[in-house]
Amino acid sequence: MNYQKEVVILLLGLYLIFLCRGASGDQISGKGIINLAHRQTKWTPLVQTSANLSEVTSIRSFFEFRTFDPEGAVFYGDTKDGEDWFVLSLRDGIPEMQIGKADILVSIKGGRKLNDGAWHLLELRNEGKFVVLEVNNQVELVVGLHSKLAEDELTGNIRLALGGMLVDKQKLFHPFEPEMDACIRGGHWLNLSTTWDTDSTWEPRPCFSEIKKGNYFPGTGVATFNSSDLPGLKTEEAGITVEIFGSWTGTTLSLQSTGFEYVLGELEGNKDVKEVQLGLKEGSERGIPPHEPAALTFTILKHSLVVNSKSELETESLDFFSMWKKGMLLTFGGVPGDSEVAKSKQYLRGCLDKILVQGQVIDLDRALYKHSAVSSHSCPTEAMNELT
């Protein structure tokens, strides 16, 4: 990719960010493009706004929505400081509405799958005692509820939020994972024109014009799992396999445990495998040719580590199966922490189309830690062009 193209993409990203941000830097326009993915906290909404109900003449909101993510929080609203609340989320890619009102908790799921990477027009509105969800101008869900304990006339403030909830997650009738790698644009929220307050940890990022499925690492940050939370050993002969598919450059993964560290980095020319002793730590570094679509299989055996059927590290002094079961740190995209080793390694840059551990697809939203710059379900096609 040449320098001029890099400048154009950078300016486009800054322009999209400017559209979304308010003059103070901590507010955005609800009509702009909002990327829900990049945040530090799970349940805290990315953006929120509030208004006096006396200003609201229409309980109707609509917006365009795009994602590959199968689960997460999309849109939230409440009154009475959260006594009555509503949340729209995805589960298995299908819309789900949950409502809490007086003594009633309701959960309903249905309609078409929305996590196909295409833009969909969503509309939510109240019709008397019913809440209606439309997708692309077709009614998908209708929820009716009535409580003798609820007041018919609404007074006070109404609060709206995107990408999270303003009430405790314990109130949910059907719990879900809130992280949502998605973009929203063209929002019309009730009849309000107020700006939205942003989460203090949020760093606004552009929504790319074209996306594909995958885990996107922009050259910043890592995703770390505790191995005890991942699929375990089936047979000693087969070991534990980690399979990675995609196009990338930089550090692929690393393993850390007490007194041990292993880094699977980038190939440096045609150099032979090198082993590096790091104090009490043992390790070897090996990589794959960058820039080309690749499939990598990393196998953990009882006393050895194998990359694409070639043994990279053998040691009788360590039992990797026991270490995996007790809990090692398996990190994709680099080395966690601020150690000299971490600082010396290049972060992964590119798209991991799929990550499998013991044959099971791994969702980065379930990571012990994921940097806010890493996207868990979508890759920009622009990034693919850079690496080819």
Secondary-structure topology with pairs:
Blueprint: H1 3-20, E1 27-28, E2 34-35, E3 47-52, E4 60-67, E5 72-79, E6 84-91, E7 94-101, E8 104-109, E9 120-127, E10 130-135, E11 138-144, E12 157-162, E13 182-189, E14 196-198, E15 211-213, E16 215-218, E17 223-226, E18 240-249, E19 253-257, E20 260-264, E21 274-275, E22 284-285, E23 294-300, E24 304-307, E25 310-314, H2 320-326, E26 329-332, H3 340-344, E27 349-357, E28 360-361, E29 369-370, E30 378-380, H4 381-387
Antiparallel strand pairs: 1-14, 2-13, 3-12, 3-14, 4-9, 4-13, 5-6, 5-12, 6-7, 7-8, 9-10, 10-11, 15-30, 16-27, 17-26, 17-29, 18-23, 18-27, 19-20, 19-26, 21-22, 23-24, 24-25, 27-28
Organism: Cirrhinus molitorella
Keywords: Disulfide bond, Glycoprotein, Lipid-binding, Repeat, Secreted, Signal, Steroid-binding
Pfam family, one: Laminin_G_1
Summarize the structure.
By secondary structure, the protein is mainly beta. The chain is built from four helices and 30 strands.
Question: Can you tag this structure with a few keywords?
Answer:
seven-stranded antiparallel beta sheet; lipid-binding; ConA-like_dom_sf; 388 residues; 40% strand; eight-stranded antiparallel beta sheet; elongated; disordered N terminus; steroid-binding; mainly beta; single chain; Jelly Rolls
